[in-house]
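Worked problem 6 (solution included).
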Amino acid sequence: MCPLLLFFAGATDKAEQAEFAKTNAAVVDALQRYAAWLKSDLLPRSNGDFRWGVTAHSAMLANQEMVDTPLDKLLAIGMEDLHKNQAAFAEVAKEIDPNKTPEQELADLATIHPAPKDLLNTFHQTFDSLQAFIREHHIITLPAQTQPTLEETPLFMR
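Solution. The predicted structure is:
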């Protein structure tokens, strides 16, 4: 089911329900017409390559990100960083358990991740204990006793 429909499933106001139904129908209609246009008009006259290529991608990086480093150099930098991070992870994994591979350690870490329904509560507990540790050990002065606001992402935005 569409996340937006789930979001409005609990709406009880008849005017809001009617407005949503009207707006949703218009959006669905517009998307269906757009899909039909893509198939009937754009697709038949599309014969180019969808890939950007080196020239277009380099231009985009220069214009939007002010990055003029050649793509092969960027790839080399990225691969070097990836290998450095993989080596660091392997070292830490070996410290945790020398008899396990880094992949096994990563799988073990996944098992201790809180369930989605427990995530917010786990965050608040962790945050409370971190604040207490920082205050007890006088690491830094925290500006307030309050926690940042943390809320679930609305269903329609997930």
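Discussion: Residues 114-144 form one domain.
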